[in-house]
Design goal:
By secondary structure, the chain is of the alpha+beta class. It contains five helices and seven strands. Strands 1, 2, 3, 4, 5, 6 and 7 form a seven-stranded mixed beta sheet that branches. It starts with 13 loop residues before the first helix and ends in a 5-residue tail after the last helix.
Length: 178
């Protein structure tokens, strides 16, 4: 009997993904796109406008799964291009370091992060972008907020699944919140 090994990089079928989500954590990346001035100070924060599967509209960070046999940096770049467009020109270092790790649980209250589909572990990054951003895929729009606007209760309440908490952590990490 010969053992077959799958060598083609890729992802799971929808059925396999659903089954896997029910059994083990899935690795994600979250990215907070920012504009910075010449001194490296964050001047704007980009938030996507999305329509959820239930029809609700919310603000969101760039986020997505890391594929099998994909480097985290490559996944980060792929999701930034997918959501912000090919001319966003993100500045991801050769060896990116997350500002935090967010654990999303299907059960409310375990952490501030909630995803009803799965237990997901997300590496979260602040990523400067210097190019022209044109939202694509399921993103309706990209709005640039000042850090103060992004941290406001109005914007925070428009974010779901704990992403508002993650955004506030990112703003604190870059020195925009006390």
């Amino acid at each position: 009997m010969t053992e077959m090994t799958e060598t083609t990089p890729g992802w799971l079928s929808p059925e396999e993904l659903e089954s896997t989500r029910a059994r083990m954590p899935i690795l994600y990346v979250d990215a907070v796109p920012v504009r910075v001035d010449d001194a490296g100070v964050v001047t704007r924060v980009g938030l996507l406008l999305r329509i959820g599967s239930d029809g609700t509209v919310s603000r969101a960070l760039v986020s997505g799964r890391v594929l099998h046999h994909e480097r985290v940096r490559d996944a980060l770049l792929r999701h930034l291009e997918k959501d912000l467009g090919p001319t966003a020109l993100p500045r991801v270092p050769a060896s990116p370091q997350p500002f935090t790790i967010a654990e999303y649980f299907p059960t409310h209250g375990v952490t501030p992060y909630h995803d009803p589909r799965q237990h997901a572990v997300s590496l979260a990054y602040v990523v400067p972008v210097v190019g022209d951003c044109r939202p694509r895929q399921d993103a309706l729009d990209l709005v640039w907020f000042t850090p103060e606007e992004a941290a406001s209760p109005l914007v925070q309440q428009e974010m779901t699944g704990g992403q508002g908490v993650l955004l506030r952590q990112a703003l604190a990490y870059v020195g925009c919140l006390p």
